[in-house]
Amino acid sequence: MAITITIRNNGPYFIAPDQVDQVTLVDHEGNVIQRPGRSITLCRCGASATKPFCDGTHSKLGFRAAEAAREAWDREQQAAAQAAAVSSAPAGEPGSPTAS
Description:
Shape: elongated
Strand order of the largest sheet: 1-2-5
Strand content: 5-15%
Distance between the termini: 67 Å
Number of strands: 5
CATH topology of the largest domain: Ribosomal Protein L9, domain 1
Structural class: alpha+beta
CATH architecture of the largest domain: 3-Layer(aba) Sandwich
Mean pLDDT: 86
Order of helices and strands: EEHEEEHH
Helix content: 25-40%
Oligomer: single chain
Largest sheet: 3 strands, antiparallel
């Protein structure tokens, strides 16, 4: 049976309780990591105090998944480039602040 790991939007990786018994987490030294509850939520933001498990810190930090963060950054860069183009256009030119 395949294990399903659900990537929660701007949150942790989640393994449902009915599949947890099929998962063994092992640290870098080969030691088995005991899970804290019936399900497994694995940290994705890197700020959890209970790594590798999620402790909800991502919501306090405003964590955004890489895809969402990149899309927001691209929009900000595009807006900044447009603002710079408008402010650098000679007066009276289309797109300049003084054009009518």
